[in-house]
Model the fold of this input.
Amino acid sequence: MKQKWIPIALIGVAGAIALAAAEMTTVKSSSVTLRPTPDIYGKSIGEFKQGTTLAVIEKKGRFLKVSADGKEGWIREKDLEPQKSIAEAGATAQVHSSLAGAAEESAAGKNLGPNAETYAKSRGGDPKQIDALIERRNKLIDSGAFDQFAVEGKVGRQYGGK
Amino acid sequence: MLRKIITMAAIATIGGLSIGASCQKAAETLRSSGLDLGSSGNKALSIGASAGDNLINKSWDEEDIGQAFAVSMTTSPGLFSDEKLNDYVTNVGLVIASVSGSQSIDFTFGIINSNEVSAVSGPNGYIFISRGAIAKMEDESELAGVLAHEIAHVIERHGMKALTNSRIGSFGADSVKTLSENQLVDEVTDVLNDYKGIVYNPSQEGESDRLAVKYLKAANYNPTGLERFIARELASVKTDLRSHPPTADRLEKLKAVIGPNPTGQRNAERFKAAVGK
Done:
């Protein structure tokens, strides 16, 4: 009987170590798109709002594989807060929940950094036009229109390599 | 002046007519501007301004320069806003970008509102192609070929390397100047003009051609798209330029990379429907 308890205790200790080593993060941007591959070219498989707490599974390049609410996929690291232990993340998530929805983006240049906005103001450039290009790209990918375009033309990752 | 610079870059990029002097000119301009352009390596370019009375404390990285480059294209020559054509060009560009293997760059595509035949790429993945270039194309694989060539320039950071190399030896890495906000923007404008004036050397053009063919094959486009477009554009320019040896050499190298019996999609009908031919 005593021998049986030792392995169970060991499993418990291992589980605690694994839990302590797991890392969490929260969504920094107003919303983020969950993708099937660690790049921007896969159709959206979900979306998380600002403040959502996510478990970090792995990192590849500038993308993190995360999971939450039964969904798993890849998100750009720059849209997420720095990774924290589970205990630290709990406190951070509460702060972010109170901020959720409060983020305001300027009508123009929301895809640009402050330096480029300064440049645009001083040189009469139109950040809205660059926003439009970026949003067009994201919409084509997220809506599945890009996937459809590739299939109809028999081009893209699934057809190449010849 | 800007139009002239863009045209020169486009000739070098699309037509492959290496002019050769622009990098030298860029280096001279940078030397006279006194910019701090950081050190070599990834994300090398940084333009700094230190704090002081009525002054600012800011630095510009490669992403900032890329964004400013894109914004500058909205002022001159300006962008073409046709929704359908922009969707089409973006989709073709995304097909190539998705097979390029680059996870670190989110490529963005736009159409320059100009009848001149040109294509330019900015830091961090901003690719622009002119209406004039699209009008001269015959199928989707040619558009894909030109976009693939520009994507390769960005991934290999040819433009950024040229800018960075042009200032090494001229300044110390820590020679950040004290500038006002307006002065800093002036300096950035100079850098952008230099960037647009860069004429890539034959080695860089060759590398981008080779990678473009690789991307075309990986995406199942006919890999002759770029070569056919360059050859046809070359036939329309003056004889003395057409016989320029490096260009003939470049076309031969392209054919060698393409290999015998190339296959893959040209999608001519879809292209014509999208561009209204």
Chain B is about 55% helix and 5% strand. Chain B touches chain A through 46 residues (CB under 8 Å).
